[in-house]
Design goal:
Number of domains: 1
Number of strands: 11
Number of helices: 2
Shape: elongated
Largest sheet: 7 strands, antiparallel
Strand content: 35-45%
CATH architecture: Sandwich
CATH class: Mainly Beta
Structural class: mainly beta
CATH topology: Immunoglobulin-like
Order of helices and strands: EHEEEEEEEEEHE
Distance between the termini: 47 Å
Length: about 180
């Protein structure tokens, strides 16, 4: 430090005491990220049996379940929780219903990419999303993830599919999934 050194502040700024150490104090502000991107059309989820309805229509066996995986992109560097709200609630999960009001539960699960996990460090794979928020109330970022795919899994179980097939009409309902950094 000083004239001819790595830090040469000019002749006007010669060190008065001959110090060779320069102390700099920095104040940094870290802004964390939590951003979710749903692909176009991803706000509408159609539940189907594996292989489509054609097998069942041709007299085959009852579908094991109705399901759909919805991919989302997540960017995160901060802890967050996940919750959901439902147009119709059945127990601690959401429901879909026909025009006559006949309801069946729809189970919703989440899988998160590597770098996001539970506070214990466990990965998040097919973790149930519940209306109460139990079990999804604290996820943490072990590393920054940027636009990395996660999956929301929507399922109606076989017994409920059988019930639906004995009713009339289309079943539908609204589910809102919330990613919240305010823990």
């Amino acid at each position: 430090m000083g004239p001819g050194g790595d830090f040469d502040l000019g002749d006007v700024m010669k060190t008065l005491s001959g110090d060779t150490i320069l102390n700099l104090n920095f104040t940094l502000t870290v802004l964390h990220t939590l951003k979710i991107e749903i692909p176009p059309g991803g706000n509408k989820v159609e539940l189907l049996p594996q292989g489509g309805w054609q097998q069942w229509l041709q007299g085959s066996r009852l579908p094991e379940k109705l399901s759909r995986d919805q991919i989302f992109l997540i960017s995160a560097s901060t802890p967050f929780k996940m919750q959901m709200t439902c147009q119709r609630t059945l127990g601690d999960t959401c429901a879909i219903a026909n025009a006559l009001g006949d309801e069946v539960p729809i189970d919703i699960y989440v899988s998160l990419p590597n770098g996001l996990g539970e506070t214990s460090g466990a990965s998040v794979n097919h973790k149930p999303l519940l209306v109460s928020g139990i079990g999804t109330d604290h996820f943490r970022a072990t590393q920054y993830v940027d636009r990395t795919p996660g999956i929301l899994h929507f399922e109606v179980k076989k017994t409920d599919v059988e019930h639906m097939l004995n009713q009339q009409g289309v079943y539908k309902g609204n589910v809102t999934v919330i990613w919240d950094s305010e823990i």
